[in-house]
Amino acid sequence: MTYDNDNIFAKILRGEAPSFKVYEDDFSLAFMDVMPQVQGHTLVIPKDPTQDIFNADPIILGHTMETVQKVGAAVKEAFDVPGIMLAQLNGKAAGQTVFHLHFHILPRTDGVDLKMHAGGMADFAELELHAQRIKAALDS
Ligand code: AMP
Fold first, then answer.
1. At a CB cut-off of 8 Å and minimum separation 6, what does 88 contact?
2. Residue 117: active-site member
3. How far, in Å, is the centroid of ligand 1 from the Cα of 100?
């Protein structure tokens, strides 16, 4: 499968689709998942056009993981949770729905179950507030 330049994350990277950004550097971008499985569900993507982990340049992957680590810590602080789950799906059979490599950052708390994957659209005002909380934690 070749990389589809019109996937939604490629459009976000080109500024053709909106997103609730929390962090950006030369190699990666982090933004709120619009169909969060839990409050604070954040995505990290490389800027490189890569559909999954197997096609990723290891150097780019390293930079992306650095962002996952940084943003994951900020999400943990912003949502004051004891645990952070990372998820990363490769291929339709694994549940991947957007074919641009991405890492899910999912705040976890005992007794709080995850909602269904890509279950329902969040309130955008709430996502904006969540993005601001994470940005504040990144700046602190
Ligand atoms: P995956 O199934 O691992 O490919 O995950 C794709 C994720 O992207 C899902 O959790 C969706 O809720 C999320 N998603 C889809 N479209 C957008 C969008 N425009 N902005 C932010 N997140 C999105």
1. 53, 101, 102, 103, 104
2. no
3. 10
